[in-house]
Amino acid sequence: MRFDLLRAMNAERRARRACVLVTDLATGAQRLVGADDLAADPLAEALDRQLRMGKSASIEHDGGHYFLTVQAPPARLVVIGAVHVSQALADIARMVDFDTIIVDPRTAFATDERFPRTRVVAEWPDEALPAIGLDRYTAFVALTHDPKIDDPGLHQALSAQCFYIGALGSKKTHARRVERLAAAGFSQDAIARIHAPIGLDIGAVTPQEIAVSIIGEILLSLRKKPLRAEKAA
Amino acid sequence: MLATEEDILGQAEAWKKSGRGVAIATVVETWGSAPRPVGSHLVIDDEGRFLGSVSGGCVEGDVVTQAQDAIADGKPRMLEYGVADETAWRVGLSCGGRIKVYVERVD
Asked: Which end of chain A is least crowded, N or C, by CB within 10 Å?
């Protein structure tokens, strides 16, 4: 592999941009194709397909044999609420390779001491999230129980193409949330994208167990079916 | 430290930048119950240090040796491993799968 291509691939990943490295397995010749250059490439169709699935693959085309190293941005987890569950969630998310960002305007909660190894932003969601940039590789979780904080975050997550949106709260709490979101103009289809009550039903009791059930549900959305945004596209 | 895909290619860049010989091994095809998916990487330097994996530890030893040859002569290699090998108990996949691994030097 050419060193300049390796450096370019690493730079693309850090910038959260998708790209594909094409290797001609007969000659060893390589090129790096960014998402924007896809259409002009001779292998455009295969590149597009693999990029959508987020999977590297060997392909044949016009008698040639190629390997496509597909690099989708690393999945990211944005959490509203620097609460007890979020502490466990941040630890488990790190193990499964998510970049995690915690957002909570309550400065007593949003401290580096409570989250020594995770990025914490002590701002309101509607201020913090535009700079963070929610995208289709982002899982969004609202955990404060407080509509004043959770709702502005949910508004942004529903408007973005997050592959997972979850909100903590009982069925009753969620029913009231649905009413507020409908009143704010969100369609039933959009609201139905919210996983609530949040997490897989494993009978979780402790904050750590709830975090496991949330991560399990996020991984299910990520791995088991095409990203929602891509299905709609 | 847990090595993520990000760490692996980032490490390849860092090793090369520091002047070491570096090779990247990539799983390009799998059949049956392969332990690591297509696209998984193992990076190797000229002293045999490595990060990442192309199997569950079954064939890494052999890949590292082949990668050092690739660092020496600059020629890419396609390696194939499966249980059908005579030496299956040593450099094969105990899970019964088969994998193809492409090894290339970073130039």
From this structure: C
- Is the ipTM of this structure higher than 0.90? no
CB–CB of B107 and A1 under 8 A? yes
Q: Can you give the pLDDT at residue A47?
A: 92
Q: At B1, is the pLDDT very low, low, confident or very high (cuts 50, 70, 90)?
A: very low
Number of domains chain B is built from: 1
Q: Which residue has the tokens 């044999």?
A: A65
Enclosing domain of residue B52: 5-105
Chain A to chain B, count of Cβ pairs less than 8 Å apart?
Answer: 58
Q: Which residues of A touch B (CB under 8 A)?
A: 1-3, 6-7, 9-10, 13, 23, 25, 28, 55-58, 67, 69-70, 74, 95, 97
CB burial class (10 A; 0-12, 13-18, 19+) of residue A162?
buried
A38 versus B78: the higher-pLDDT residue is: B78
Q: What distance in Å separates the CA atoms of residue A141 and residue A153, rounded to the nearest whole number?
A: 9
Q: Whose structure tokens read 């369609």?
A: A187
Q: Take residue A94 and report the two structure tokens written for it.
A: 């790190």
Sketch the domain layout of chain A as residue ranges: 3-71, 76-232
Confidence at B88, pLDDT banded by 50, 70, 90: very low
- Domain A76-232 CATH superfamily: NAD(P)-binding Rossmann-like Domain (3.40.50.720)
Rounded Cα distance, A222 and A227, in Å: 7
Mean pLDDT across chain A, nearest whole number? 92
